[in-house]
Amino acid sequence: MADNNSEAQAKLKELVVSQKLYSLDAVLTAAYVFIDRAYVFLDYDTDGNIKITLRCKPETTAEEFAGIEGNFQNELLHQSIRVRLGKKNRIREIIIGQALFSLNPGDASAMRDEPDEEVEKELKEILAESGEDDLDYLEDPLEIAIPWEEKQKKAQEKEKKAGQND
Known about the structure:
Elements: H1 2-10, E1 12-17, H2 24-33, E2 38-44, E3 50-56, H3 62-66, H4 68-88, H5 90-101, H6 105-113, H7 117-130, H8 148-165
Antiparallel strand pairs: 1-3, 2-3
């Protein structure tokens, strides 16, 4: 009888993680990664921490399941960092969205002349959170925003001038 209890314990792992360290998004994503190897049950304990129970699936070997707790904790750390970086990358998403939105010829001049006030406000909030305080994305030192035709026209003019100087 005690042997059945130890066998059941070998097929069951429990973890408790603090929401101060790991967001619910990170826990859910890490749990999703493991659904092919174990049944994943999530709950809250009395302190508000997240309780994770992993139960071995029939097709998972005992050797595979033995290290699942450590692997889950590693995946939890990975997903936590991914979530944090994702929040910082919202700036990039907004800039790309604004650039793609400006591809509509009817709206392009308005987007280049005056950035949307709501977008500007959100960017300032995000930059304040990340410790950045300037909005240099409006500058274009590499001339990325210049259309190809204009760049080619400039290049041809330079070639003409160089040809005249020879």
